[in-house]
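Exercise 3.2. Students should predict the tertiary structure of the chain below and write it as structure tokens, then compare their answer with the key that follows.

Predict this chain's 3D structure.
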Amino acid sequence: MNILVSCDTNYIKPLKTMFYSLFLTNKTNIDIYIMHSSISDENIKLLEDFVKEQSNNKARLINVRVEDEFSGALTTFYYTSEMYYRLLAYKYLPEDLDRVLYLDPDILVLNSLETLYKSDFCDNLFMAAIHTIPTVQSANKARLKVTSEKSDIVNYYNSGILMINLARARQNSYEDKIVKYINSTPKAGLMMPDQDLLNVVFRKEIKEISELKYNYDARRFSAYKLMYNYDIEDVMAKTSILHFCGKRKPWLENSIGKFNSLYKFMWQKALYE
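Answer key:
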């Protein structure tokens, strides 16, 4: 299995927590590619050792340092320019890789990722989940229809968990489309920069995957229970990826949430035991 991550130094502790949960629930051999522009060699070495130890030598971390091509691109709130890197992964990853699974650092892996990883792209560039809370969907679709002047935006996908079809991306290089969107789009069309870009530029090239299984929004427990009768037992047994979306991250002081105790348990195990 090939995993892609991208972050800066500020997210190393959440990244380690995510890795810990990944190795706990996925016992296969894993190559993890970390794309970044600024993490020190010392911290990369510490991460490499952590990955080897926590995976019992079944996983390895592969350092992919890139020039920050997006240093001048718009970033907002807590988003950094590293968020764009996943979309150009095909430029930097080995040519013999035909697919890779991108994972945000702010997740916990609760069950196997194998089924997701082996899913058929059906000739699409990406696979991603839609967060189906009606207000989230309608507001973001309406906003992007206005800013992009594209009336055919049907869904709004979350880019935090992204299957990337590297083979097809190399056949149809799209870097120029990304640069054009960043340079020509007003701020309202880049509120969640890489995610907005994904939903406009690649709106017809994304295969939908299960939100409840592969991108469960940890903030929405009550909504999911009401809408789908999906309770805590379902999350633990059926959900592969628990995503701590938004700015109120579970590792921050005074953060509260349904799954924060689980996250803090994993955080403690990963970083201090």
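Discussion points: The chain has a mean pLDDT of 90. The domain at 2-272 is CATH 3.90.550.10 (Spore Coat Polysaccharide Biosynthesis Protein SpsA; Chain A).
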